[in-house]
Amino acid sequence: MKKLNIFIGFDQKESVAYHTFCQTLIQHYSMPLQITPLALKNLYQYSEGHEDRSNDFIYSRFLTPYLNDFNGWALFADGDMICQTDVKELFDLRDDSKALMVVKHDYKT
């Protein structure tokens, strides 16, 4: 893999969190990263019609395969995360027999 494609949910209300997450990715990387914010303003051909969203990227996250040209692996992450180690370690866990892999957590608001 020449570079790691990372798509990050961007919500203007949480822009500091997004930039903090990007900084932690860069701080720990061992391979080139291509970081793309999923900002609704930049998704020109995408129209968000849902009103029930808790953040700006709740539905646009599903564009990740399309934005990755349906080619190879990519990572989507919410913009309010922090990376404490090299994200390549996560990519190294990918299983080519799977079309999609997720990390589940016990979410509590």
How would you explain this protein's 3D organization?
This protein has 109 residues and is an alpha/beta fold. The protein has one domain (4-91). 20% of the residues lie in helices and 14% in strands. The protein has three helices and three strands. It has helices spanning 15-28, 64-67, 88-91; strands at 4-9, 33-38, 75-77. A three-stranded parallel sheet has the order 2-1-3, covered by helices on one side. β1 (4-9), α1 (15-28) and β2 (33-38) form a beta-alpha-beta unit. The protein is globular, with a radius of gyration of 14 Å. It starts with a strand and ends in an 18-residue tail after the last helix. The relative contact order is 0.26. The model has no long low-confidence stretch (mean pLDDT 85).
Question: What keyword list fits this structure?
Answer:
3 helices; 109 residues; three-stranded parallel beta sheet
Biggest beta sheet attributes: 3 strands, parallel
**Shape estimate:** globular
Question: Taking all residues together, what is the mean pLDDT?
Answer: 85
Share of residues in strands? 5-15%
Question: Could you tell me the radius of gyration in angstroms?
Answer: 14 Å
The helix-strand sequence is: EHEHEH
Helical proportion, percent range: 10-25%
Question: Cα distance, first to last residue?
Answer: 36 Å
Name the strands of the widest sheet in spatial order.
2-1-3
Q: What's the helix count?
A: 3
- Name the poorly predicted regions: none
Number of beta strands: 3
Task: Tell me the domain tally.
Answer: 1
By secondary-structure content and strand pairing, the structural class works out as: alpha/beta
